[in-house]
């Protein structure tokens, strides 16, 4: 830095007030009024560096220049400790393609992706262990599932309907795609995308940047005829490769369904693929392929989500129970937290209207509560003098609430069963069984309506808010039924309703969605990015 001088503009002449100009002497310094460049440094983003400090001693006669070489510390929390990649400091001329190196450059840069990292990093000799040598890697949501050669491909249409193999499968991102592949029956045995090997020959990395591999096994093989009929093969151990037979391309891949099993720490432990193979006639110039991928955590059964993360309008409100004792009913998923059922009747449901409108006949008919949809349903109850109060009240309660009314609902569409804090308890306001049984002989308290209010709010960024349920209240309304004279009948309407209420607070002027750090970065900190 002592040899640097940004204000030295004139050749072999002293620049006015340029204290670092080597062409200036003591007589010139005596005429200076200030130093136009008092400090000269190298890279301002370095955490520690040498700095040349220039000043004038105006009390001396004549005034003299003072030069100091000091160690300067960058106060910013964003600084560069060492510039160990020297190639980044210079402009490297790109390699010009020639007939000799064309194939090598095509292999390196001709794919959908390529590594921009240099072949070797010029590290300090004393840095034997990189900072992340002992770091534990794991898959996170949306991160591409890595394989030994690149990533797990999930072909999809990009610009047009034609298949592109450059679409990576994201971790925990369930996808289903369809696209069109150009084929030639005469060459079908050489088209990689029609072969089973193309989709299972690369092992998956258990965690990113690891040497532990997970092989993709063949779960099942279904053969589809030209008229669309499918037959499931008994054995999936033998690979069926595409081949030309009697003018047909048989064993061509028409569909692939990946199923990935992972741990709760983000490690892939199992991968399987189900194939649909079919025949392609020689007149066909293209074929439609379908691809799908799903993820399941180990020791759990797949439960359909209603959003990721926030609820999607029109999807069911997920519900469940807290475990209270064993044994659990058949069909329930028992975890360390919420018990979920794989059927819709153990989700949040209401009475489903029937054509007969008979409450006793409608018992057991339930409709799922769909997020964002206000719903109302009902039936009619014919009461006679011979009916007993307590059995009637319990029957109506079962009609309104169902056989197993849930205790919790998921606050998000993707809330996991083991995350109990992600589940909202249902506040139930209704007459207890003891109060129903202690009725007078001349009158009876029976439930006539169930009203469910779901309060939700927008959560997260203002740009992409997510729907989150914050409160659920189920209110049972009862009425007094007086004793009917012998031979008389009475018809009572029974209703169920669901109301969704948005309680989000409106954004105020100047509102910030997330807290910020009051730090001013250098204007060129993110160079070359804006």
TrEMBL record:
GO cellular component, one term: MKS complex
Domain Tectonic-1-3 N-terminal: 2-101
Position of the signal peptide: 1-16
Coiled-coil stretches: none
GO terms (BP aspect): cilium assembly; protein localization to ciliary transition zone
Keyword annotations from UniProtKB, A to Z: Cilium biogenesis/degradation, Glycoprotein, Signal
Residue stretches making up the Tectonic-1-3 domain: 138-297, 307-502
UniProt xrefs under InterPro entries: TCTN1-3, TCTN1-3_dom, TCTN1-3_N
Pfam families assigned: DUF1619_N, TCTN_DUF1619
Subunit organization: Part of the tectonic-like complex (also named B9 complex).
Similarity-based family: Belongs to the tectonic family.
PANTHER family reported in the protein's UniProt record: TECTONIC FAMILY MEMBER, TECTONIC-1
Protein name in the entry: TECT1 protein
Gene source species: Dryoscopus gambensis
Lineage start: Eukaryota, Metazoa, Chordata, Craniata, Vertebrata
